[in-house]
Amino acid sequence: MAVLEARDQISLNDTKPAPAISARDVERQTSEELKEKDIDYSQRSQWLRAAVLGANDGLVSTASLMMGVGAVKEDIKAMILTGFAGLVSGACSMAIGEFVSVYSQLDIELAQMKRERRGGENSEKEVQLPSPVQAAAASALAFSVGALVPLLAASFIKEYKLRLGVVVGAVSLALLVFGWVGAVLGRAPGLRSSVRVLVGGWLAMALTFGLTKLIGSSGL
């Protein structure tokens, strides 16, 4: 009889329900997980969006330079050399500007960490410091990728008017793609953003072409 009672007591202990988790604990855990995901997505999207914007800058500026030269010179060599010069100068400018900017940010964060150590604050938390070299390389690469679009579009077409048309077509397609990608990363309406980027690129090319044509025809 004592054995049966002990066995029943053990079975009751085994079937004892686990301590209940409050709704507040579940909500807190869920919010922390979502916060971590949002932070990771935010950091990733910022880098990707910066790369898209850099590529868009390279695309528009290089294409506008090529269209401006094409307004006064029909020679394919002059257009290609101008585009290549725009690619190199723009990539260098982007890289140097990004390097200086990120290096200044790095100096500020390092100085803040030193002040916290001197003040006795807990500075053992994980801090991801920016890399000036990485930022400069990413900016130069993104600009170069965008600048390659009009260069490759014009490289193998000798006929003047067809070459201008192909450049405008290739740049327009790339602008739509860059605008849509930037909208997706920024969680904005894709169509509206793509059209806005496309119209902006058209205006830049048209103004450069028109003003260069006007100055060239005046004999300056």
Would you give an account of this structure?
The chain crosses the membrane at residues 76-96, 135-157, 164-185, 197-216. It comes from Tetracentron sinense. One of its GO terms (cellular component) is vacuolar membrane. The protein contains six helices and no strands. With 220 residues, the chain is mainly α. Residues 1-6 and 34-41 have low confidence and may be disordered. It has one domain (57-217). The chain is elongated, with a radius of gyration of 29 Å. Helix 2 (23-72) packs antiparallel against helix 3, helix 2 packs across helix 4 (132-154) and helix 2 (23-72) packs antiparallel against helix 5.
List keywords for this structure.
elongated; 6 helices; 0% strand; 83% helix; 220 residues; disordered N terminus; mainly alpha
Summarize the entry for a quick read.
With 220 residues, this protein is mainly alpha-helical.
Biggest sheet record = none
Q: Can you count the helices? A: 6
Instruction: Assign the structural class, choosing from mainly alpha, mainly beta, alpha/beta, alpha+beta, or little secondary structure.
Output: mainly alpha
Tally of structural domains: 1
Report the principal-axis shape. Answer: elongated
Proportion of residues in β-strands: under 5%
Give the fraction of residues assigned to helices. Answer: over 70%
Q: Count of DSSP E strands?
A: 0
Mean pLDDT over the residues: 80
Gyration radius, in Å: 29 Å
Uncertain stretches of 5 or more adjacent residues: 1-6, 34-41
